[in-house]
Amino acid sequence: MGLDPKRTVAELRELQQLTGDENGAQRVAWTETWARAREWLREKVAGTGAEESVDAAGNQWFTLRGGSDRAVLIGGHIDSVPNGGWLDGALNVMAGVEVLRRLADEGQPHVTVRLVNWADEEGARFGRSLFGSSAAAGSMADQDELRSRKDANGIALPDALSEHGVQLDSALDARSELRGAAAYVELHIEQGPVLESLDLPLGVVLGTFGVERHQVAFRGQAAHAGSTPMDKRRDALAGAAKLELEIRGIAQRTGEGAVCTMGGVVTRPGIVTSVVETAECLLDQRHLEAAKLASMLDEAKKASQQFAQEENLEVEWERIWNIEPILFDDALIGLADESVKEVAGTSHRLPSGPLHDAAEVARAGVPSVMLFVQSLRGLSHTKLEDTKEAHLELAVQALDRLATKTIERVASG
Amino acid sequence: MGLDPKRTVAELRELQQLTGDENGAQRVAWTETWARAREWLREKVAGTGAEESVDAAGNQWFTLRGGSDRAVLIGGHIDSVPNGGWLDGALNVMAGVEVLRRLADEGQPHVTVRLVNWADEEGARFGRSLFGSSAAAGSMADQDELRSRKDANGIALPDALSEHGVQLDSALDARSELRGAAAYVELHIEQGPVLESLDLPLGVVLGTFGVERHQVAFRGQAAHAGSTPMDKRRDALAGAAKLELEIRGIAQRTGEGAVCTMGGVVTRPGIVTSVVETAECLLDQRHLEAAKLASMLDEAKKASQQFAQEENLEVEWERIWNIEPILFDDALIGLADESVKEVAGTSHRLPSGPLHDAAEVARAGVPSVMLFVQSLRGLSHTKLEDTKEAHLELAVQALDRLATKTIERVASG
Questions:
Q1: pTM
Q2: Where among B305, B323, B341 does a domain terminate?
């Protein structure tokens, strides 16, 4: 019974049948459907002899004891957004199951190998993503704030977790799970268009972007669209328009891997007969290098001030959220490159725009790396999310080879 | 008892006391407060001997019979927006009352002089402005549509009108009122910043702008702000931003009197983590010359198509509303210029951005003209609307002189 990538694809379809509907995957964390998916996963792994345990944050672990307590971790998440895709998170878990089967079939591995199904990667119900992995990483700093969060039906986060055996107050006890962890590997769909545009099935992830997210508000003066001459206007929308166009130049000057997005503008009063008084812009900037990210932010702030001066406006910045870049392990990136080349001929290194559980594990100091498999049309978080079956099979093979190389590396110290 | 401009100011304050509150004027058409204002106006005019009549559209007429049935009309509107200013519309009416008093005091005028208080200039309750004047002008073409309009409380327009003795079905009978009308004059606050910026109390209005109002929708592709490289984006907001900046150039190239406004942008999905898929822009373009307005519209359309091509977007135009420019009468503009010069030393000709009842009367073929008096800070439709008392008094004097000159002109054929 060797590695059978076609079985992974078949099991993903079985899971989608069991936990999805005509609108897509419905495995939202801390729901009945999610619990059913975890029960189904437990049955799938049972044959391998790996021991199941659930930690204090609700993460589901399957441990194949090896010749050493030092452990190689393979991670994924079976939870989805509502109306989600069949692959996001679940591919990672099911490919990991296949690797466990192959390893178990070959007898005791040189080191311990653990598959972890992280709890609530998506944060779909309570708006807090990476719940389980941030607890295990010890980076969960917002427990007081989480205590007061409620879902759309008014149910508090601690109550929902409690129904699934997790006490928010002790979630950080999951930190003990990473003791002995020597390496972490994760496979994920790209959720972007890069690999498809390069016509490559697989890529190696360099790390996750640092993110600076701000609301930028330009303020001018509402004035009648008919009676106010052009040279007497203080049009807040002009400031927003200039900034929208400028951020593309900032990304271009910063070089490959920089992204800047104005995801929305809210105009007030926003009526056809008035010059815009206030334009509130949502700005998202990302880069893999902290210094470059800081410089992008600085450039955008300076540009906004210049535009405000040109247009006789005021401008105000408010930080919504930020996170530093998290880089994956050089040695593991090398092993991942070899693995991809062996199964697909060509590898490609790319940063990850979205965050992943791997970033939390890397933050905790565990050498980590991710593989990306091509996403068709870059779509995810929708039932339209898809990847060619041939590419899914290559992805399982690449993860398997990466697991083998990582085990060898950890075993050899 | 000659002309007493100070009395006009005092009466405007009395009206504000009677029909306003701490939030401003509340004389919304087809309400009790509006009816009270009309009753108050009736009492003010009673002493002049002018006969009152209310036409089929609810317009309130005060007729001073002259030596000829040919009539000079002086117009205004006593209705206001909710929380409105003390001068918009009411100044016109009360200055007209003062002119009627002076004329009546001097005996029978050479021609008939009529003061008209138009019904529902603002359209504040049902969203249809210039109700009474468009009925009298015969340009009210939307009666079927008006029949189904409801106010914020669900009361239908025909029912509200009926409470004030007006039947929508017969409103167009008001057309008979303009038979015999030889000229129409109207005074109004500028509602814009031009006269204040020139430090002039009074101006002569050349006509009302033609307006082209469109929704311009740019459509691209939503994509993850983190995982979509800059060169793979189809960002609808970029099209909107370019158009917002371009319309200023269009106005500038067209020359003085051209205005272009993007009054609002709605972005979808409008979230910080996604490139904008759809940007719906509200575009308002105005000019006093039809050919220049058409050319401004054409330029904006071509620019939008160019931007769509540059950004790999689709763009779609939908007309919301338009109206042709309406020019006032050359001879009356000359008389208005003389009148302003006599009372203020300097006159200035300017177009009107907002529409006015005078435009409807001019459309009906009656030679018309308007005077503007300076608005402080260009504000109107707010309780902050104001004009210096000295300027209000000059305005009453200028309207009086314009009435005299117009009567002489009409009397001499």
A1: 0.81
A2: B323
